[in-house]
């Protein structure tokens, strides 16, 4: 009855909406407006001396930023390196320490997750060590390893191991009972169940653990490098000693940007292993 | 075991020599907590007798439905047949051999489909086939998988992942997976319970069509009277729990192949339906009354 009537209302919805009503366009406009106002406030404030003396203007900082990103790789001795070199040094330390941590945490997490006894036995260690600040390990690392490079890697290792370990354990211990029942009714061996069912089922948890660990590794490396020499953390410390505030701001921006990129990489990976599950 | 029989008039069937599956005096007791620690902490619980005195003989190539009020232990019984849940007392024989654990001689269809979300339709079947018969050739496996995808009408969806399929299609994959391992008995735990009414009706007729082709022994748990009448040769009606038992077994005389319209013309249809309705209504009312009183 009603279906035979044409529905003019439907047609109008399909017409393209005006550009300024699009949510993304509006969000971008608000973003640009906020950024503009912030830069304006900064520029005017710095010029009229509203802040502490010595605070650089926005335009000065942007010029510095442009100079650093267009000259990333130069070398004038150990205390005057291009920011690209320092970035690579930091990334290398993170890569080594983080990879080592993942190689230990994922298999160990699987092992702890599949055995309730192992879970109860190891959980106290994990819970005790997890809340320790990464920098608390620094003196110990320096004393044992007697090498700043290795200590940096050690700090990354010890601080990025926990989220992956905990998430992997949780994921493996909480695999949907239905999947395990399917495996059981088919008569699958324990090994086949672990490889084909438990690990893929826990993969979303494992990847989100890896993502959190990467975030922590990137947080920690900057702090650790302030005490070590070379790397982005050291760059900031060095520029503080030079009292070059624009360069510190440039470094903060670059650290944020690289952290954002690393995180998006893992976010994409999370999506890849989700298969319609949300976590 | 302190399984005190509440009611001893349960219909004990004659033991059949031709039966494919025999369920004899089976009971399920969930043990309570009676140790000293639990008593001190006030967490002591008595044993819970879910089902008892279950006797059932199932002939080869019959479709058996088990129907009863919610919480009567139908799923518990099916899980014991599947070997997922230990039998507290009594025994379940499959071809004369007692069931001691899960095995590929019984194919299971789950209410929530239980498909692996990271595997495609084809991979879900391949996992089952390869697990059950790891020595078979690649070629043979490919053929079995293809046949069963075709059987449930999913040709073209082989490379899709479960989240890309509708509920009805997912359960087709579940049925194909259970059949692909060529089990002797198919166990279905409320296979259409999570589907909307239209999809459910459609899939019931699909199951009837598939059953006509293979005539495998099926034990199905259901809540639906129409579903049981459409598909079954025998309908087992269970009483309410705790200590649920078999109240009555109905023979369904409709000729096959069946469809919804023709079985309603059959003279026995309305009498059977009324019988089941009054049983379910009586049991459900008693459950509700017990809940209100307790």
Could you characterize what this model shows?
The complex is a heterodimer of chains A (279) and B (294). Chain A is mainly alpha-helical. Chain A folds into two domains: 16-55; 83-274, Orthogonal Bundle (MetI-like fold). Chain A contains eleven helices and no strands. In chain A, helix 3 (58-70) crosses helix 11 (245-274). Chain A is flat and about 75 Å long. The relative contact order of chain A is 0.11. With 294 residues, chain B is α/β, with parallel strands linked by helices. Chain B has a single domain, classed as P-loop containing nucleotide triphosphate hydrolases (Rossmann fold, 3-Layer(aba) Sandwich). Chain B has helices at 36-40, 74-82, 121-132, 138-151, 167-180, 197-214, 225-231, 260-265, 269-293; strands at residues 21-30, 48-58, 63-67, 89-94, 97-98, 106-109, 185-189, 217-222, 234-238, 246-251. In chain B, the strands form two sheets. In chain B, strands 6-7-8-3-9-10 form a six-stranded mixed sheet, with helices on both faces. In chain B, strand 7 (185-189), helix 6 (197-214) and strand 8 form a beta-alpha-beta unit. In chain B, helix 3 (121-132) runs parallel beside helix 5 and helix 4 packs across helix 5 (167-180). Chain B is globular. Residues 1-11 of chain B have low confidence and may be disordered. The chains are: A mainly alpha (279), B alpha/beta (294). At the A-B interface, helix 8 and helix 9 of A face strand 6 and helix 3 of B.
């Amino acid at each position: 009855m009603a279906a035979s009537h044409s529905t003019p209302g439907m047609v109008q919805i399909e017409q393209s909406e005006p550009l300024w009503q699009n949510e993304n366009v509006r969000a971008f406009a608000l973003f640009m407006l906020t950024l503009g106002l912030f830069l304006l406030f900064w520029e005017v404030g710095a010029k009229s001396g509203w802040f502490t003396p010595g605070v650089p203007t926005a335009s000065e900082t942007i010029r510095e930023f442009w100079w650093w990103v267009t000259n990333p790789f130069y070398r004038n001795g150990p205390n005057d390196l291009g920011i690209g070199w320092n970035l690579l040094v930091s990334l290398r330390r993170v890569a080594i320490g983080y990879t080592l941590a993942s190689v230990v945490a994922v298999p160990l997490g699987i092992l702890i997750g599949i055995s309730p006894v192992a879970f109860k036995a190891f959980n106290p260690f994990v819970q005790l060590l997890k809340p320790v600040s990464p920098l608390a390990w620094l003196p110990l690392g320096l004393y044992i390893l007697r090498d700043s490079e290795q200590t940096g890697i050690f700090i990354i290792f010890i601080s990025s191991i926990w989220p992956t370990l905990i998430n992997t354990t949780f994921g493996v211990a909480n695999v949907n009972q239905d999947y395990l029942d399917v495996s059981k009714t088919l008569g699958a061996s324990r090994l086949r169940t672990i490889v084909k069912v438990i690990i893929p089922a826990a993969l979303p948890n494992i990847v989100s653990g890896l993502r959190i660990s990467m975030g922590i590794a990137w947080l920690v490396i900057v702090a650790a490098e302030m005490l070590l020499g070379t790397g982005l953390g050291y760059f900031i410390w060095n520029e503080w000693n030079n009292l070059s505030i624009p360069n510190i701001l440039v470094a903060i921006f670059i650290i944020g940007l690289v952290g954002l990129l690393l995180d998006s990489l893992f976010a994409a990976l999370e999506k890849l292993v989700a298969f319609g599950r949300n976590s | 075991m302190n399984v005190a029989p509440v009611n001893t008039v349960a219909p004990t069937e004659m033991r059949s020599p031709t039966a494919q599956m025999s369920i004899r005096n089976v009971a399920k007791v969930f043990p309570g907590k009676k140790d000293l620690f639990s008593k001190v902490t006030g967490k002591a619980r008595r044993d819970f007798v879910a089902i008892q005195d279950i006797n059932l003989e199932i002939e080869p190539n019959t479709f058996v439905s088990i129907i009863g009020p919610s919480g009567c232990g139908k799923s518990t019984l099916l899980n014991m047949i599947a070997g997922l849940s230990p039998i507290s007392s009594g025994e379940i024989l499959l071809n004369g051999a007692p069931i001691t654990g899960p095995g590929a001689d019984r194919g299971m269809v789950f209410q929530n489909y239980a498909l692996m979300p990271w595997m495609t339709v084809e991979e879900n079947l391949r996992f089952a086939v390869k697990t059950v018969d790891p020595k078979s050739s690649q070629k043979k496996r490919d053929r079995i998988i293809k046949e069963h995808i075709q059987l449930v009408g999913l040709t073209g969806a082989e490379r899709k992942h479960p989240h890309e399929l509708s509920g009805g299609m997912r359960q087709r994959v579940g049925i194909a997976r259970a059949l692909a391992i060529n089990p002797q008995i198919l166990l279905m735990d409320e296979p259409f319970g999570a589907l909307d009414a239209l999809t459910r009706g459609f899939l019931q007729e699909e199951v009837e069509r598939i059953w006509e082709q293979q005539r495998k022994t099926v034990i199905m748990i259901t809540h639906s009277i129409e579903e049981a009448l459409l598909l079954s040769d025998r309908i087992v009606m269970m009483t309410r729990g705790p200590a649920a038992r078999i109240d009555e077994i109905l023979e369904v005389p409709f000729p096959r192949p069946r469809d919804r319209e023709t079985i309603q013309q059959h003279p026995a249809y309305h009498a059977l339906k009324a019988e089941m309705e009054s049983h379910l209504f009586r049991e459900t009312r008693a459950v509700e009354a017990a809940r209100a009183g307790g």
